[in-house]
Structures are given as structure tokens and as C-alpha cells.
Design brief:
Layout (H helix, E strand, L loop, with lengths): L3 E6 L5 H8 L5 E7 L3 H10 L5 E3 L2 H8 L3 E4 L3 H13 L3 E4 L7 H14 L3 E3 L7 H11 L6 E9 L7 H4 L3 H18 L3 E9 L11 E8 L4 E7 L12 E6 L3 E4 L6 E5 L11 E5 L9 H15 L7 H20 L3 E2 L1
Parallel strand pairs: 1-2, 1-4, 2-3, 4-5, 5-6, 7-10
Antiparallel strand pairs: 7-11, 8-9, 8-15, 9-10, 11-12, 12-13, 13-14
Helix pairs in contact: 4-5, 5-10, 6-8, 8-10
This protein binds nicotinamide-adenine-dinucleotide.
């Protein structure tokens, strides 16, 4: 008998990852598919040969099926209503990023989770791969000394169509959350201030600003510098961003694709203008699944083990606040404090 009865809310592009994951688990049963457009839900049921009802309203689906977990894979504008409704009906929620569409939404969602006594955990799939785990370990090992300057470059030119093309801040709201969350993960630090300049370059196919530069001061004294664009044709970086962390004794590099490494000076008795450096390879020890599957493994493990998940809303609110405070800074032209 499956322990987890799942309602899938939002059967668009991203739902395939979640459904394919659910189908790998014996303790999970998808009991309903929900979409504003019921045909979308019906087509998904057909595609995966799912023998379950389809709905247009998540509350009705939960009540009629007795579900205990909701996957919220709807668009950002629907996340708050779906999450709050599901929590109030006694379900845990595993939801796509971002937490709502504003800081106020995120605070209300976290409050709803606390009051319900259920878990609300956010998808941060880009924390779950061998290389970022090795990079985090390398940065935090002391190999490069005290990390003081964290840099992430993100330059890609995806032509999505759909909601992102008409959002006000598509890059910062829909994508940079991953990079900001990765910066917290790598540094083990939380932000204390941000200055953000958002803009839209000539030729951008987005209505809102698809490029941004953000400077975050972190609570361990480090500065995190983010440069990103979603309208950058040619010479793409990895979706994981290209990282350079400068510490007091050396530099750690991860291009987002290959194995991370550090370069540290070769010790010598004599003063040198520029020291020769040696390469230190990161240790790839993470043996979990990648991406969505890894994050979903952690979400279910947290319920089974009765503990807080790594990407629980109480942690994720620090990442999503980087998004909303960056947008506030861009709109006001001022440095914003957390
Ligand atoms: N973690 C990642 O790497 C990643 C990647 C892509 C998208 N996402 C996130 O996943 C979410 C969905 O993105 P997508 O690309 O699948 O979008 P999409 O537009 O393809 O699909 C969203 C679906 O949700 C449905 N929907 C919207 N409001 C609803 C509501 N109130 N009730 C029921 N259904 C509703 C829409 O009809 C649509 O079918 C977004 O939050 C996005 O930011 C995450």
C-alpha cells in the first residue's frame, strides 16, 4: 500500500521530471492530476498511462482522493494559492521554485506551513549533483583559506516562449534563484545586503529585464558577485553558472560542467612578484541522484525520517529573499538590507 498519495498540480513542461520520479517509487501513488486546462491533465494521464482522475481545482482533487502530498508544478503566480490550500487541507507540499511572487507571498507560505504542521519543501535541483557538492566541500575545507569573494557568471540565450517572455524580471525571478541558492550552499552563508542593477540588452526577446548584476554582502564577510543574462547569444556558460571563489590562500574554480579544482600558491622562502600555483582536484564523493531526482529523494527521505528537508521553506526563504531584495534594489536604485 503506497504511503504517499500524490496530487500533481500543474501538468506543463516541468511536470515530466516529477511524474517520472514518482513512477520510480513503490511507496508513491499519483492519485490525481490537476491543471487549469483539463485537457493538459488528461493528455499527461494518457502519456504516462496513469489511471487517475483529472481536475481543474487542487482542493477538490485533494478532498476527493484523500491525498497527503501535493506536487506544485504550476506557474509562479499560482504557487501561493496552491500551497496554502494544500497545507490547510493537511497535505505536505513539494513545490517548484520560486516561493510565490513576492517576499510577502514567501512569508505567508512559510507561515502557512508552520501553522499546518506539514512540510513545505522547495525544488532546488541545482544543489544536487556530484560537482557542486565537491565544490562546496573544497571551498569549505580550508584549502583556499577563508572565502572572501564569490563570483558567478551566467550567460545563456534560451527562447522559451510562454510566461517568462512577459514577466517583469524573468532572469532574477525565474532563474537567479538557483544561482543565489547555490551561492548560499557553497559558502554556507546568508545575505545581509544587496545592490542590483537590472537591465534589458538590445535585441532581447524578453519584455522584462533579462540581464542583471548583483552584489551581495554575506554574513561571513564574503561578497557574492552575480552577473547574468538570459538574452546572451553565443559563448554560453553552463546552466549551473561558472564559479570563481577567491579565498585568503587560493582560488576555487568550477565551470559548472567539469570537475571543480583549486589553485593555491606553491610555498617558497623567497618573496615573489607572482607566486607559482599548484592545482588541487576536488573530491567527487556524492553518490546520490542528480537534479530533480536527488532533491525529491531528499524531500521524501525527510518525511520518512521525520526531519526537516535540506530545501525546506525555512531554509529556502533565505534564497528567495535574495531574489525579492535584489528586485527591490533594482526598482529603487538603492542598496537593500535583509
Ligand atoms: N527547477 C527547475 O529547474 C525548473 C525548470 C523549469 C521550470 N521550473 C519551474 O516550474 C514551474 C512550472 O514551469 P513550467 O515550465 O512547467 O511551466 P508551464 O507553463 O509549462 O506549466 C505550468 C502548468 O501549470 C498550470 N497551472 C497554472 N496555474 C495553475 C493552477 N492554479 N492550478 C492548476 N494548474 C495550473 C498551467 O496551465 C500549465 O499547464 C515554474 O515555477 C518554474 O519556475 C523549474
Amino acid at each position: 500500500m503506497p504511503e504517499f498519495k500524490i496530487v500533481v498540480a500543474g501538468c506543463g513542461g516541468m511536470s515530466h521530471q516529477w511524474i517520472e520520479y514518482a513512477l520510480t517509487r513503490k511507496d508513491v501513488e499519483i492519485v490525481a492530476l490537476v491543471d487549469l486546462f483539463e485537457d493538459v491533465a488528461k493528455n499527461t494521464a494518457k502519456k504516462y498511462s496513469l489511471d487517475c482522475n483529472t481536475y481543474t481545482d487542487v482542493s477538490t482533487a485533494i478532498k476527493e482522493t484523500g491525498a497527503n502530498v501535493v506536487f506544485d508544478i504550476t506557474i509562479p503566480a499560482s504557487h501561493k494559492n496552491i500551497t496554502v490550500a494544500a497545507l490547510s487541507l493537511g497535505c505536505h507540499v513539494f513545490g517548484e521554485k520560486p516561493m510565490g511572487e513576492s517576499m510577502q507571498d514567501a512569508i505567508e507560505m512559510q507561515k502557512a506551513a508552520k501553522e499546518s504542521g506539514k512540510s513545505y519543501v522547495v525544488m532546488q535541483n541545482r544543489r544536487f549533483n556530484k560537482q557542486i557538492r565537491a565544490f562546496r566541500d573544497l571551498v569549505q575545507s580550508g584549502e583556499i583559506g577563508v572565502p572572501g569573494f564569490i563570483n558567478a557568471d551566467f550567460f545563456l540565450g534560451p527562447h522559451f516562449g510562454g510566461f517568462r517572455d512577459v514577466m517583469d524580471s524573468p532572469l532574477v525571478l525565474d532563474m537567479a534563484i538557483h544561482t543565489f541558492d547555490q551561492a548560499r550552499f557553497i559558502s554556507g552563508a546568508n545575505p545581509i545586503s544587496v545592490y542590483c542593477h537590472e537591465f534589458n540588452t538590445e535585441g532581447s526577446w524578453y519584455k522584462g529585464n533579462a540581464s542583471a548584476i548583483c552584489i551581495f554582502e554575506m554574513d561571513n564577510g564574503a561578497v557574492f558577485n552575480y552577473r547574468g543574462s538570459w538574452s546572451a547569444e553565443g559563448a554560453p556558460t553552463s546552466w549551473e553558472s561558472s564559479w570563481r571563489v577567491v579565498g585568503s590562500k587560493g582560488t576555487a574554480i568550477w565551470d559548472g560542467t567539469h570537475s571543480p579544482y583549486a589553485e593555491v600558491p606553491i610555498p617558497t622562502e623567497e618573496h615573489q612578484f607572482l607566486y607559482n600555483s599548484q592545482k588541487v582536484e576536488a573530491t567527487l564523493s556524492y553518490s546520490g541522484q542528480d537534479g530533480h531526482f536527488g532533491c525529491l529523494d531528499e524531500m521524501f527521505a525527510s518525511l520518512i525520517e521525520g526531519r526537516t528537508a535540506e530545501t525546506d521553506c525555512t531554509d529556502n526563504i533565505h534564497s528567495v529573499s535574495m531574489v525579492y531584495k535584489a528586485i527591490e534594489s533594482a526598482r529603487t536604485g538603492k542598496k537593500v538590507y535583509f
